[in-house]
Design brief:
By secondary structure, this protein is an alpha/beta fold. The chain has 10 helices and 10 strands. Helix 1 packs across helix 2.
């Protein structure tokens, strides 16, 4: 399986690690650490040294309760970093849902649009939609994520019922709609949206049943890094409570990423690149010695 993007056809025979670069003052995990362009550029370099295969740059936090950011402010944050990152020789993803931002970063050579709204967000004052931007581009990759409601309300009233079935139906629908606009299947990746309007139990149900998503024929991106569901289960079984800050969730984050890879995820979006890369190397060594091919879903072309 390959993921076609603007400049790269990414070979996903083995899972790839996507390093997170938050150019924000308020992200749930590392808000403020890389808010300046210089700090974010240095972080791009550091993640590649640690083994990241691609970078995901975002200028607006979509944590639960986050306030929306104007396109103008988002562009001011991300454009200098994207301009720098596209010269580093790796695929560059931009985490955005605004058509104006999508067009601007694609014009700079960005490879992937990573959209938590799955191209559904509309600005009533703009005639061009996110789908229009992606469909008009000849090659860019796109990651479509499932989100219940929207960031300001998604955890106040999480979704109900069987999460895997609902997520699968949604992702099949939005991917099919995009293909009907002329976007080739090889450009599409899907993300179940861990933590986006779901309960702890639903998040882990999605991980346990993640293989169901492979039947759609698109690569799966897993975004478990430092999510609060990991703290919920580790704190519940701890005799001495550990610090609750997201930065202290490295070990459960790596464990979840490894399980996601074992269950067929082909892109792991993470903060802790070095640790995730090392865990994957151990897992892949065991797979090789066992003579077990890494699970790869058929692609329907």
């Amino acid at each position: 399986m390959h993921w076609q993007t603007t400049r790269f056809s990414i070979d996903l025979a083995l899972p790839k690690v996507m390093g997170i670069v938050n150019v924000t003052p308020d992200s749930f995990s590392d808000g403020g650490q890389y808010a300046s362009s210089r700090a974010a550029m240095a972080h791009c370099d550091a993640l590649l040294v640690q083994g990241a295969h691609m970078l995901d740059i975002g200028g607006e936090s979509t944590r639960p309760g986050a306030s929306p950011l104007s396109a103008r402010d988002e562009l001011a944050r991300v454009l200098p970093v994207v301009r720098y990152a596209v010269g580093l020789g790796v695929p560059v993803s931009v985490d955005t849902y605004k058509p104006e931002v999508m067009q601007a970063v694609l014009d700079l050579g960005a490879d992937i649009i990573n959209d938590v709204w799955a191209l559904r967000w509309r600005d009533p004052l703009q005639p061009v939609s996110a789908t229009d931007v992606v469909a008009a581009h000849p090659r860019c990759g796109v990651c479509l994520m499932h989100m219940h409601r929207e960031p300001t309300t998604m955890q106040l009233r999480p979704m109900e019922g069987d999460a895997p079935a609902q997520v699968l139906a949604f992702l099949e629908s939005v991917a099919t709609a995009l293909r009907e606009r002329g976007v080739h299947a090889s450009r599409i990746c899907i993300d179940p949206g861990i933590g986006f309007g779901k309960t702890v139990q639903q998040n882990f149900s999605l991980l346990a049943h993640q293989v169901q998503l492979l039947a759609l024929g698109y690569p799966v991106l897993a975004g478990w890094s430092r999510k609060s569901s990991l703290a919920a289960v580790t704190q519940a079984h701890a005799e001495v409570p550990a610090p609750s800050e997201p930065a202290h969730r490295v070990v459960p984050s790596v464990a979840a990423a490894l399980i996601a890879a074992h269950n067929g995820a082909r892109v792991l979006r993470v903060h802790d690149v070095k640790e995730t890369v090392q865990a994957l190397q151990v897992w892949q060594a065991v797979q090789a010695q066992a003579g077990t091919a890494v699970t790869e879903a058929p692609h329907d072309g």
